[in-house]
Amino acid sequence: MFVDHAKIFLQAGDGGDGCVSFRREKYVPFGGPDGGDGGRGGHIYLVADPHMTTLLDFKYKPHHKAKRGQHGSGNNCSGRDGEDLYLRVPLGTVVCDEQGNVLAELLEPGQTYLAARGGRGGRGNQHFATPTNKAPRKFEYGEEGEKRTLVLELKIIADVGIVGLPNAGKSTLLAAVTAANPKIAPYPFTTVHPNLGVMELDAASRCTLADIPGLIEGAHRGAGLGLRFLRHIERTKMLVHLVAPPENGNIDDFEHYHYAWHLVNQELAAYTETLARKPQIVCLTKIDLLTPETVEKIVREFREREGLEILPISAQTGAGLDALKEQIRRKLCELSQRQEESTQRHSGNNMQSGAEASIPSGE
To answer: Would you give the DSSP letter of residue 219?
Structure first.
């Protein structure tokens, strides 16, 4: 079961209490206080695990509690700290509070977030001895561990997101170019959760593709399954937008293809401008159902009316898939190069600013 949203309740460990004790040994009549400190309560950490793909574990077990610290004891012995609790979450997990404020994003393998802090251990009576009170019976109780309610949201990490209307052939394309095995059937909303697949671009490089459930009009407001899963393509570098022939109607009518393309872009923009600005490769899919004349007409109409080069493909026959892979490889290389140049430019500006700041005024 794919679960991408979970509400969890965390209770870190309480600190141990300090101890009241006095040294009692032969020939040491005034040994003084020797009460040890209580141990710290266990912290609770969230750890990004690349082997996890869902928040399912938190759906069935939302409550988590760390162990408390041990109490202090005599002979200046401090109690043992409570064992820290590490909860594994998938890469791409966003941690929010109940008000929706983002507290952390776990994007790298092994990245950790301190979700709940354990209570400090109390001090023993050895700390309260003074010249006027050499036998104190004062001690401190351990602090309570932090209690928090957090909301976890999963935004899968992929290089390319596949979008389109229901039954546009997204899952079929994913299965054709990767080793993924998504559910494929001739009815809308066959895909009810995102599917991931890895595509080999060449001998030395590969990329990850994400197929999300089909979008319909009003998806950004919750219609269909769109709103729930649109966040999964927020982190993609680019989109492959599939436009397919109508299930019922005239497959030669260009207006259908234009409407389908415009509707999906409209829903992406309504959800967030970030999605609308992502680079796209637009594909006319299922061309095995169309005549060559119809394919040529649709490609020409998109070019003339929208200035858009649309790529004809068929996941069933494999037509155009090599060209699609090459376009994806080229586009990802361009995006990577731009990011490197932007990073170098930003780094150079910082160095220049630092140098200017270190120039003496001459006064």
So the answer is: G
Query: 90 in helix, strand or coil?
Result: strand
Q: Domain range holding 261? A: 160-340
Q: pLDDT digit string (tens) for 220-235?
A: 444 445 556 677 778 8
Residue 174 is encoded by which pair of tokens?
């994913």
Distance (Å, rounded) from C-alpha 283 to C-alpha 286?
10
Tokens in use for 194?
């995102």
CA distance 83 to 60: 23
Q: 103 in the Ramachandran plot: left (φ > 0), alpha (ψ -120 to 50) or beta?
A: alpha
Residue stretches of the chain with pLDDT short of 70? 1-2, 180-193, 214-229, 346-363
pLDDT of residue 359: 46
Q: Say whether both 102 and 53 belong to one domain.
A: yes
Q: Whole-prediction pTM value? A: 0.71
Distances in whole angstroms, Cα of residue 280 to Cα of each of 161, 326, 357: 9, 14, 42
